[in-house]
Amino acid sequence: MTQNSRLAATPLSILDLAHIRQGGTIAEAYENSVALARHAETLGYKRFWLAEHHNISGVASAATAVLIGHVANATSTIRVGSGGIMLPNHSPYIIAEQFGTLETLFPGRIDLGLGRAPGGDYAVARAMRKDFRPNGDDFPQLLEELRGYLAPAKPGQAVTAYPGAGANVPIWLLGSSGFNAALAGELGLPFAFAAHFQPDNLLAALELYRRSFRPSAILDRPYTMAGIPVMVADTDEEAEYLATTPQQMFLNLIRNHPGPLVPPVRSLDWNALEQSTVEAKFRAAVVGSPETVHGKLELFLDRTQVDELIIATNPYEFQARLRSYELLAEIAGLGTKVPELEGTVTS
C-alpha cells in the first residue's frame, strides 16, 4: 500500500447489527458490539453505526438509540450513530428527543443516519406505527419535521424538543435506491448507499445524488459513503470459508427462515436460483487475503469515487471478526490517514 492510494486517504467505519450467533445469546451480542467498538476505536476507525431491524431473529439492534448510548458510554472518541434509524417507524419528535439526549451525553460523537424502509415486515411496521405508509412516501415530510425539532427553537414555537432543539447532530440520508439519493442531494446532506445488500443500484444512486446536489449550510460539495461486506483473513481460502456464514444468513432470509449466524461450511447447499440471488446480494463484497482485499478496495474506490466506506463483517466466530477488522486497518493504514478536505463531513 502507498500513501497516495485512494484507500490510504479514505476514512473507514463499521456497520453493526448486534448479530446473535447460533448457540449464543442477546447479551453476548451486546458484549461483542461493545468489544468491537472499543477495538475499532484503538485501530482508528471513524464511526461505529448500528442499524434498526425488527422481528428478525438473530439481529438484536432493534432498540437502536438505546444501544447507541450503550456503545458510546463504553468508548471515548469513535463516533457512534445509526445506520440507520428507519424514520417512518417513529414520531420525529421522539427521535429528536432521543438523539438530543445522546448528543448531550456524548457531545460531538453522535451521528443520525436515516432510512425510509421499515427495517422489517409490514406487520411489524404496523405494530410500531398504525398510520405507517408502506411505500415511505411521507419520508420527506417526516424528515422536515425532525430537522425542525433539532433546529434552534423559535419564539412562540408550540412544541419544542427538550433535549433536541439546537442539537448539532449530523444527519445522513441512507438508501438502496434513488429516492433518498435525490433527496439528500437536493437538501445538501451526506448520502450513504447500502451496497452491502443492494449493490446493483450503487453507481446509479451515486450519480443521481451528485447530479442533484445543491450546496447547503451542511456541505458545500457532495459527500458519499458506501456500505460493503468485507472479510479479510490470512489467505483467500480462509476468507472465502468464513464468508459462507453471512452467505448462509442471506440464504436463510430468502428461504424465510431468518435466524442466528451459523458456522461456516466448505460448500453451500443451494439451488441455482438461490445461489444467483445470494451472489447478487454480495456483488460488492470484498473477500480475501490482505493483498487481495487491498487490490479490490482500490478498484472499488476508483470506480465509485466514494468519500468513505462503512464495513459489514459478520463471520461466526467473534475473534475472526476482530481479526478481519485488524487486517483491514493494516491494509488501509488507519492512524496515518491524510487530513480530510475542507467542505466534507469532518464531524
Put the structure in a nutshell:
The chain has 347 residues and is α/β, with parallel strands linked by helices. Helix content is 41%, strand content 14%. Strands 1-2-3-4-5-6-7-9 form an eight-stranded parallel barrel, surrounded by seven helices.
Structural class: alpha/beta
Largest sheet: 8 strands, parallel, barrel
The total strand number stands at 9
Give the SSE order as H and E letters.
EHEHEHEHHEHEHEHHHEHEH
What is the CA-CA span between the terminal residues? Answer: 27 Å
User: Number of helix segments?
Assistant: 12
Q: Report strand order across the widest sheet.
A: 1-2-3-4-5-6-7-9
Gyration radius (Cα, Å) is 19 Å
| Helical proportion, percent range | 40-55%
Percent in strands: 5-15%
- Which ranges are low-confidence, i.e. pLDDT below 50, for 5 or more consecutive residues? 338-344
Mean pLDDT figure: 92
Principal-axes shape call? globular
Explained architecture:
It is a single chain. By secondary structure, the chain is α/β, with parallel strands linked by helices. Helix content is 41%, strand content 14%. It contains twelve helices and nine strands. The chain has helices spanning 26-43, 64-74, 92-105, 122-128, 139-150, 178-187, 202-212, 236-242, 244-254, 272-281, 290-304, 318-332; strands at residues 12-16, 47-50, 79-86, 110-115, 171-175, 191-193, 224-232, 286-288, 308-312. Strands 1-2-3-4-5-6-7-9 form an eight-stranded parallel beta barrel, surrounded by seven helices. Helix 1 runs parallel beside helix 12 (318-332), helix 9 packs across helix 10 and helix 11 (290-304) crosses helix 12. The model is unreliable at 338-344 (pLDDT under 50).
